[in-house]
Design a protein that fits this description.
This protein has two helices and four strands. It is mostly helical and 87 residues long.
Length: 87
């Protein structure tokens, strides 16, 4: 559960980090409020949301198991836990 959440957080903060690197390379004050105007923050937020929505589409299309596969839940056989599998 941590990996998907961390991936989405990374995708969300990527545009902001790239802009911060841009400011740093242009020798602008990165932590000053004037370097982060509201229109720029709006575009960065839109870019972040597009990245997240794109990742949802990619995961929905190419993630998971094959269509029609059956899931066998975890169960106990001979006193041992057998993890769930897809068939």
């Amino acid at each position: 559960m941590i990996r998907p959440v961390a991936t989405e957080l990374l995708l969300f903060f990527a545009p902001f980090a790239i802009y911060a690197i841009y400011l740093f390379t242009m020798r602008e004050p990165v932590l000053e409020r004037e370097s982060w105007p509201l229109p720029t923050l709006a575009w960065l937020t839109i870019a972040a949301l597009v990245l997240i929505l794109g990742s949802f589409v990619v995961l929905a299309q190419w993630g998971g198991e094959k269509p029609g596969s059956a899931y066998v839940p975890a169960h106990i056989e001979n006193g041992k836990l057998v993890p769930g599998t897809s068939q």
